[in-house]
Amino acid sequence: xxxxxxxxxxxxxxxxxxxxxxxxxxxxxxxxxxxxxxxxxxxxxxxxxxxxxxxxxxxxxxxxxxxxxxxxxxxxxxxxxxxxxxxxxxxxxxxxxxxxxxxxxxxxxxxxxx
Length: 114
Ligand code: AMP
Ligand code: ZN
Prior knowledge:
HIT family, subunit A, binds zinc ion
């Protein structure tokens, strides 16, 4: 996907502040953080939205959440708490169409979100 921002990060064409990587997933700091910890976890496979996830992606989804748990430990927010979010399509506030799990923490997060 040559016109996908996160595929360009995966290809090394755009720099990113990486915090975690496996064969299947990459995690890097959000460029416009909404909390002291704001990390995006993406599959190395291009998947546009959560609606496009199928059984063939099961291992990717499992690894994305395993990454979230591990990064939360690394960032020392596992016990204080954190939030994970997939935004989907326009009403969900999705801006980049390559699925990414937001991992947010390091402050109290209000509920419901705006
Ligand atoms: P979403 O609105 O769920 O699609 O989230 C997209 C996220 O990507 C936003 O939180 C942006 O701040 C973040 N973002 C956009 N460009 C970059 C970039 N080059 N590096 C890191 N994060 C980015
Ligand atoms: Zn992509």
